[in-house]
Amino acid sequence: MSGSEAMTKRTLIAAIADEDTITGLLLAGIGRITTDQATATKETNFLTVIPGKTKVEEIEQAFDKFTNERKDIAILLINQHLADEIRFRVDNYTNAFPAILEIPSKDHPYDPEKDSILKKVRRLFGE
């Protein structure tokens, strides 16, 4: 499959974020819910993480699903403080698609020192 063929299939933005961020992204129109006719299960392109209720394993499962299983995701947005909880997986992710972008949340400011993409760029330039 050529690069352009892969891009035409990757049309969605996925998100793993806190409730406020997910609400804003859904209001912006990124949400998509599909129903698998065979199993009658619903599949979304987002995970709302609720502090104290959502387990790290659920975040890991959503990350793996969005990055490995789903072939329709072009970009994965993840709150940086949630990426910190699964930092090993985020830092070791090397595929071009979906692109992973760490974003701030209302209660957790963005820290460029933790961003996995900036770390890779610094290594590339020998910093």
From TrEMBL:
Compartments (UniProt record): Vacuole membrane
GO cellular component: fungal-type vacuole membrane; proton-transporting V-type ATPase, V1 domain
GO MF assignments: proton-transporting ATPase activity, rotational mechanism
Membrane topology annotation: Peripheral membrane protein
Function: Subunit of the V1 complex of vacuolar(H+)-ATPase (V-ATPase), a multisubunit enzyme composed of a peripheral complex (V1) that hydrolyzes ATP and a membrane integral complex (V0) that translocates protons. V-ATPase is responsible for acidifying and maintaining the pH of intracellular compartments.
Protein family according to the UniProt entry: Belongs to the V-ATPase F subunit family.
Subunit structure: V-ATPase is a heteromultimeric enzyme composed of a peripheral catalytic V1 complex (components A to H) attached to an integral membrane V0 proton pore complex (components: a, c, c', c'', d, e, f and VOA1). V-ATPase is a heteromultimeric enzyme made up of two complexes: the ATP-hydrolytic V1 complex and the proton translocation V0 complex.
PANTHER family in the record: V-TYPE PROTON ATPASE SUBUNIT F, VACUOLAR ATP SYNTHASE SUBUNIT F
Name of this chain's protein: V-type proton ATPase subunit F
